[in-house]
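Tokens for chain A. Residues wanted.
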């Protein structure tokens, strides 16, 4: 899926980046602009196909640059599984402030095959999730004005399925049709949207997680409705 990527220009202010040689700085910045990095910042690298490329008059050993970047921790490179990950990629792109994108990153993380990359991804997602959870908690405190937050159980997979079937795997608002998914969130990758559960009576106003209080809504319509950001967080941690 095409993502708009930010050029991480703030890196020029970081000593750890400034001490890299110019070719390594260039290699890292070029890598950060690769569309294959998606929302997560991980991509396959076909090492057999990476060799010397010509940049102007210079011959550049791309693999050597990647190895050097991995040595100093700017990337995580698994040469056996042929995957790489840029741990700060989501930070560069403000993913923790963008729930849709964070959710896509989580979905993309399920495709990781390398144990090394998966561990690094889990570390970063864990940190971002805590940031997101803190924000959610702040919102909850504002919404409930001093009341203690209720513990939020994950919505049962069976209820989720029941609601999606009831709506024919389509958004209740815009009727966008999704392909049935046996588990998790049905997704239309081409459109960059997925199906979610929408609380008819918002959870923050006492609505429950019974099928009768839920309807299927695509991620766009659910955001547009904008009733309760916390549901997104719960949905994200519970499903997908
Ligand atoms: Zn919709």
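Reply:
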């Amino acid at each position: 899926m095409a993502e708009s990527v930010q050029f991480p220009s703030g890196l020029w202010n970081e000593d750890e980046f400034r001490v890299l040689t110019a070719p390594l700085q260039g290699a890292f910045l070029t890598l950060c602009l690769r569309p294959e990095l998606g929302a997560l910042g991980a991509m396959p690298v076909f090492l057999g196909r990476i060799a010397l490329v010509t940049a102007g008059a210079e011959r550049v050993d791309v693999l050597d640059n990647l190895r050097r970047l991995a040595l100093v921790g700017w990337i995580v490179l698994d040469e056996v599984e042929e995957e790489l990950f840029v741990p700060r990629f989501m930070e560069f792109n403000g993913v923790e402030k963008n729930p849709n994108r964070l959710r896509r990153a989580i979905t993309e993380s399920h495709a990781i095959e390398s144990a090394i990359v998966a561990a690094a991804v889990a570390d970063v997602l864990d940190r971002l999730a805590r940031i997101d959870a803190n924000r959610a908690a702040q919102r909850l405190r504002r919404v409930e004005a001093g009341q203690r937050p209720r513990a939020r159980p994950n919505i049962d997979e069976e209820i989720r399925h029941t609601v999606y079937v009831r709506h024919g795997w389509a958004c209740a608002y815009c009727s966008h049709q999704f392909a049935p998914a046996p588990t998790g969130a049905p997704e239309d990758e081409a459109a960059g949207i997925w199906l979610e559960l929408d609380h008819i009576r918002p959870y923050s106003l006492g609505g429950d997680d019974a099928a009768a209080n839920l309807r299927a809504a695509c991620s766009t319509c659910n955001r547009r409705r904008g009733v309760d950001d916390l549901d997104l967080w719960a949905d994200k941690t519970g499903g997908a």
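The pocket of zinc ion is lined by residues 171, 173-174, 176, 217-218, 220-221 (CB under 6 Å). Strands lie at 42-44, 52-55, 58-61, 76-78, 83-85, 187-188, 193-199, 214-218.
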